[in-house]
Amino acid sequence: MSSDCPHTLLIENILQVCPGREGPIFFGDAHNGHVLSYPFQVRDAQGRAFERQYSLLVMMMDKTFLLNSWSFLVQQLARIVGRLQENADKVSTEH
Questions:
Q1: What does the alpha-carbon distance between residue 78 and residue 18 come to, in Å, rounded to a whole number?
Q2: Would you call 20 exposed, middle or buried from its count of C-beta atoms within 10 A (0-12, 13-18, 19+)?
Q3: Residue 34 pLDDT
Q4: Start-end of H helices in the chain
Q5: What is the pLDDT of residues 46-88, one digit of tens each?
Q6: Mean of the pLDDT values across residues 18-30?
Q7: Domain boundaries, the chain
């Protein structure tokens, strides 16, 4: 699934065009697999514009299983992102 990297780079562009955009994005095909990407930003005093952009990825060949798991996966990814952002906020306010 190495072809997913260019797609993830496109997601970085989405974040630049739509500041504050956070949440699930689905892409892929039957040949390369399917991806649920959850882009988000965290505060970082050393990052460009005092933030860094990341994306958590869930990759599967089985599109049906990925889409049927959508609600559960998005809920869990949102929890992970929330914790990462909380921790980043704590670190940035300490410095």
A1: 19
A2: exposed
A3: 94
A4: 4-17, 63-68, 70-94
A5: 767 788 888 899 999 999 999 999 999 999 999 999 999 999 9
A6: 81
A7: 4-94
**How many other C-beta atoms are found inside a 10 Å radius of the C-beta of residue 55?**
20
Closest C-alpha to 12, from 1, 25, 2: 25
Tell whether the model's pLDDT for residue 1 goes beyond 50. Answer: no
Contact 15, 53 (CB under 8 A): yes
Q: Which residue has the tokens 């699930």?
A: 24
Residue 38 has a CB neighbour count (10 Å cut-off) of 21
Q: Helices (H), strands (E): how many in the chain?
A: 3, 3
pTM of the model: 0.76
56 vs 81: CA distance, rounded Å: 8
What's the confidence (pLDDT) of residue 11? 58
Distance CA 43, CA 67 (A): 31
Both tokens of 5, joined, read 């990297």
